[in-house]
Structures
1.
Amino acid sequence: MRPFRFSPIKNEKELLKAITYVHFSCLKLCKQILGKYLPNAGNIGIFCHYEDEFKYLTKVREELTILSDSIYNNKYYRLLEPIVIPAKGDIPETIYTYLYIRRPDITHPDVGDVDFYLEPRQYKKLKDSIIMGKKITGAVIFDRPDLDFIKLFNPKIDVSSFVGANKFTF
């Protein structure tokens, strides 16, 4: 048995399986914690756990994205063709326009992450309620001064999600 659900990812078919898994798991996490599905911010991240995997997925990312069109310190790259995941049950169709491949980190077993979008006033209201002490199991203010997000997590689900007031769909 592999210590990580998908790693090492060795081909594009495995990458697509990981992306699909992250997508549905993050939406499940969002609904579990916030009671509803939020729209995605446009990006999806896949987390590597081995150096060879990172090198391989970086090459794949270079084939799938516009290298000159990256944001956030060259971490997120615009896809040549958006990734469209069809609706399933009550989960709406989702379109991802940016892809992130995270450097290896064997201490964090998550498969990946998705950022969700809340209109700025709604985001501020949610964030302020958490700051004021409202307990929302699985939601915390993300502790990084350079990023303004609420982190959604569940130790039983091997993905993480973030809620913010910005979209990646430019």
2.
Amino acid sequence: MDYNAIVNRKALIVAIVLLAILAALAVYFGVVISQSPQGDTGSHDVTYDYSGWGMATDTAASIVFRYPSRLPTTYITVIDWPPKVETSNAPYACSAAGLEVQSAGRTLPVAINGHSYCVTRESEGAAGSIYTNYAYAMPHGKGILILTWSTRVVQCENYPDPQMSACAAERQAFSMDPIADQILQSVMGIKASR
């Protein structure tokens, strides 16, 4: 495992821990989210197409979920794939905080296809690329589900045109939100005791 992968994995773990701490503090201090989630990206009556998707199983938590074998992108690639889906008994809470380029990342409440998520993104640049750690949390029963993974995006300026323009257009148009929503909506078989 190379140094960047180790650093990214540690940063992802820190982001998840901080997300859990923020959720616990929000509940402890009685913070109630009075604003509606931002950024609803589509219809609430969505039919998901999982053709060509793989299936992952976490036997310890009895979780089964679907994920795409690769992203539909050229210049954005995934690291830590397939993603991880974990459960937590912490109550769901989400408050907007932070900046994406800081160590804890930026957290925002987001609605995707009518589903509420707490999304944390943490990005840093290294050796001509930008690495981003993602954590999508959603309420599930009395606890939460958390989906995590990382991506690498090359600096578009590393390419001559027309690749530079294609890279910039892909970065501008592509969103991880619909993919995260589809993965989390595919989760099945969680142990009730967790």
3.
Amino acid sequence: MDSSVRPGDRVASGDRFSRGTNQSGMRDLNERLVLSLVRQHGSLAKTEIARLTQLSAQTVSVIVRALETDGLLKRNEPVRGRIGQPSVPMSLDPEGAYFVGLKIGRRSADIVLIDFLGTAVAMRRLPYRYPLPDDTVRFAVEGLQEIRDSLTHRQAARIAGMGIAMPFELWNWTEAAGASAEEMEQWRHRDIRAEIEGRCGVSTYLRNDATSACGAELVFGKAPLPRDFIYFYLGTFPGGGIVVNGSLYPGPTGNAGALGSMPVPGPNGKTLQLIDKASIATLEKMLLEAGEDTSRLWANPADWGGIGRELDAWIELAADGIAHAVISACAVIDFQLAVIDGWMPVSVRGRIVEAVAIKMARADHEGLRLPDVREGTVGAHARAFGAASLPLSERFLLGQ
């Protein structure tokens, strides 16, 4: 990956959105504001939009009419009040735009197409022992072409961009990936974002995979979120993201929220990193040492089969590390909430959240207000959905 490419960089066509024709263009500030509010509230009448934005009724009418003409907003059934004309709520049109998300993981790659509401329309998956650049680019190109072939001409024309979510500096994960240094070193010298953009012909964006998962919770999450929260995604290795003042904060290098590197207490007074305690790779190692099959961990995140003692021990280990990481983070930023999601069954996620809350309450947190802890609502594929949210946020929303 070319070090000059910053995560979240906007690339490719800079043309202004061409009304009714080029769905990949940028919206202006007020249009983004209206689209963001309608997404947040589900539907809004023009009078409500004017009140929330403090724009004039005439300005709102012009904006809404333009967005409706472009197929981004649609009219709902009129709502009649006691007096005056009925109001007509406007909502996002699911077919207004489509977005592609590519997740490059350490054990598999996923490509997903979502509609304007964030609903998955199509998904493809490539399992592997470890990721290699050529295979990844080929999968992205062929996967997107398969998805395009399954769409109508109008739907395919409304694909507005692709996001890529991947771990940074993959070449440093040689031992963990089980690959040779020569194979993983290929990642250092490849600009995957540019290659995929050139081959696929869509504007492409790049962000760290766990930070992307946090973005998915922010944009598509099914539960109300406070203005400030910390987010953990437990995959092969743990990572996360932070949201401050309602916006995802990736930091100047895109590495803010590198929670896997957080120092946490280890055995015998030794300090470890969270990656040593909350990685699914750690659970895999525990299972291998017990002579258990580990393929179920990666085959289906909804079903890990009958894992017993090792899973119990790992949940305790992971929860202890996460609890300390949350408390340490709250000493820097007064987070109101900690969200935990990951590549795991919902039942396991729930047990981890419960254990983290208990361990936080028992830990020394004098002088700090503990945040609430709850499960993420996007689920195991949050990284792929977060990748798809990149072009959506960059082109159509505010403050994501």
